[in-house]
Known about the structure:
heterodimer, A: 18 helices
Amino acid sequence: MMETRKLEHERRQRILERIATLDTLPSLPRVVSDMLRLLADANYNIDELMTLVQQDPALTARLLKLANSAIYGRPRQIDSLHEAMVLLGAKEIHRLVTTISVMRSFDDAFTRGRILDKEQFWAHSVGTGELAVRVAAHFGLDFRGVDFTAGLLHDVGKVVLDQHFHAEFRDCLDLSHRRGLPQFEAETRLLGLDHADVGERLAARWGLPDSLSAAISQHHAFDASHASARLVACVRLGNHLVKDENLSCLGEDSLWELELDPAWHLLCSLKPMLDEEGKRELLAAMRRDFKGSRDRVRGMVSEITS
Amino acid sequence: MKSTLVYLISSDAPWAGHLDEMVRDERLGRVQLFPVGRGALAAYRAALPDVVIFDLREERRDVTVAMTMIREIFPRMAAGGVMVIGSADPDDRVALREEREQLALIQLAEYLPRNTPDSFYVERIHALQQRAVEFRQQAELPAGSQGLNSTLGAIPSATKAGAASPEAHEIPVPVSAAPVKGKADQAAPLEIKSHVRVLLSRPEQQVALLEALLDVGARPLQLGDNGALQNSDDDVDFLIVDSVCAERHAGLLTQMRRSIPGLRIIQVPDEGERGMRRLSRDISALLATSVPAAGPAELAEQIRARVSEDSPVPVLLLVEDEQNIRELTAHYLLLQGYEVHQAEDGMEAMGLFKVRRPALILSDVYMPRMNGFKLLLEVKNRVPELPMLMMTGYSSAAEVLNSSKYRNVSFLAKPFRLSELGERIRTMLGAAS
């Protein structure tokens, strides 16, 4: 067993070293972190948000195209960013801008990868982000856009593994199917690290804030005592619920009932008055809440990839 | 002198052939190779070799299975020795040393690099074989000379100094007879002073009984049907025989009764596996209650009484996708007197659950098709109070299980000791009843 651990450690080091020397890793558009910085300020100004987006004309064009697509079903044409901002709201604009920019910067990565399906991957990621936000709202929490961004980015480690280590990644997938192991456990066993660890490296490379980095690195290895545990819990539960809504990354089911999850226990402890019946109702409400969003998420992703 | 058997549990066939030639040249026995895992344990039980060599160098994948086997086998080695060849990795040494300190009978553990010369192995095997021969000679001293008694009651263990120095390439020679740890310790007051012969009609039953007899500290002689009756001058106190055999070999039995004064023949009903399990369990049960110095006659009475007593056998459902672990665990539980049904995933388990109505379910967590969490949910929806013992080596699963909302769900970390598993099951069943 000790020997196994040592081998795992060696493999881990080998992969991390290779990742450190890769020069084709996706970069994170500046607008993503700039927007988060802006949203973090409780008194931010809509104009400031607009200025940020307008700096990138291609981004603005895509945003308007999306705002006018069937997803939102607006009766009238939206012609300007200002109009979109007013009609869709700053939070929605933030989500769209983040999604468009992140997806764009990963385009290359997907042409090299072999296993992940681009649309399925992003639908899972966007869905996780949206659900993380909803979970947070149900517990009276507001992470000012970090929750959505974290959900969107939580699995990016998989893209890097698929892109640069696809033989190994394929083996992990096989092992996971054969033995009924969660994907991340199969990765740990064969590679000595999992996609969350790889995501953490990317987060460090991109200079993301600690909370966002924790949400990526701990979405499987949950630590209830971490400073950002509540945020991580929302992303973890978002990731869980989205699988129940048939939006998984690789066609996998959720492994256990959500009520068994330590992240659920942590969030429920924020509402001490909540009894078992109340918890059941809350969970049902969250699921109901997301039901209609599934098609919207799929539509949005396919609109952006087209 | 009988020839000695060396069992090599390894996957290195060319090396085994090589060793066999070397050892045979020295006329000290022969080497039989068994791959780690399935079959090796059963083969060991059937033959009880003098020396067992575990080769863990190339078996990283199966190290858990190998460790479990070591735990199973070492306490039963009454003579000879065990050689563990681990890697030269210091972490491995620590793991094996911890293992060894808990097992009194490990005579020798070596940690050798891949390129160790053959002569080294041959030398070590010879030394272990030599000791096996000495043990046997000691055991075969005429009755009344204390020879067998002291061998059974107090098998010399590795000396403390030997156990503490795994790097030492010398074989520790037992300097004083110390009592054996564990079950054999409890066996001492029973004073089973000689051989219990096993004569049964079905070989798979013999293995179960053999295990139980070894646990008691008895020394089963030869397995097989009438082969066991060939040397009637052996020192034999008991003969356990099932009704089918008794009929078939009525003449031989009469002959034995005449030629061996004081021989107790215990006839057991031919009840198949279930009866055998009960008998096996009762032998251990006699030990556990540590009956003070029961003589052979009383012991025979007690065994007879318990065998005929019809106590219900708890039914267990064991769910595990890894065949090695499942079979080993099932075998152990059978010996503990349970009725065990095996399933390789949650789906199969649900089918069995409905038909067999188990008293307790033991389940692995991550399995294909239907995992342990889903099984837990399905079972608890039907029978909320049913005790379930979940076993996993994955921290992600343990974390979730520890926050389980269900009653009567307990969690056991893999790898575990079989004795630990047995203890947990007893506790859970005790609490449930």
